[in-house]
Amino acid sequence: MDENVLLSNVDKAFSNLKAGSWGKLDLTFDIVEQTEHERSWADKIGQTRWGAEAILTNLGFTKDVDYDGILLIYNTLGGNGNFCCNGGVAYLGNSYATVAYSTSSWAIIRHEVGRK
Q: What is the pTM of this model?
């Protein structure tokens, strides 16, 4: 995945969310090194959350100190599972979301993080 595309999509989505909140919402983010997800084989949202948290822990990040949410951007796997196609998944009140990588995924990121 092209890091410039990732940066552009997340920045555009977060800027749009900030503008929609009349400047009151300020989101920050870090893009960590691309890593093969140890639980990607499971093709389940909950399984990938545990794996993503383990990756961040191994990189020295502490939950609720260094981060309060995770946005997992993934390459599509094909097939029929949760990660087969373009789109995203997040649950209301949760601090974890997944979004398929594409050059135009900023709107999906915006939606999954918190705005229709």
A: 0.83
